[in-house]
TrEMBL record:
Anti-sigma factor NepR domain boundaries: 22-55
UniProt feature, compositional bias: Basic and acidic residues: 1-17
Pfam family, one: NepR
Lineage, opening ranks: Bacteria, Pseudomonadati, Pseudomonadota, Alphaproteobacteria, Sphingomonadales
InterPro entries, per the entry: NepR (IPR041649)
The protein's name in its UniProt record: Anti-sigma factor NepR domain-containing protein
Organism: Erythrobacter insulae
Region (Disordered): 1-26
Length: 62
């Protein structure tokens, strides 16, 4: 990737589509990916299971 300084003096890199990506964007992407990869808490999984059961019960009534 080629790099150059932008108007604020920050180093930027060429993106795959020809746009410029600031240096901090890579760190932000890593942080986002790490949050997405975290498993769901058990309490949230329990809540989703309860909602699924509720939907199934309502489907039987209709």
């Amino acid at each position: 990737m080629a790099s150059k300084n932008n108007e604020k003096g920050e180093e930027a890199h060429k993106d795959t589509d020809g746009g410029e990506t600031p240096d901090w964007a890579g760190g932000l992407r890593q942080l986002y990916d790490s949050v997405v990869d975290e498993p769901l808490p058990d309490s949230f999984m329990d809540l989703l299971a309860q909602l699924d059961e509720s939907d199934t019960d309502e489907g039987k009534k209709a």
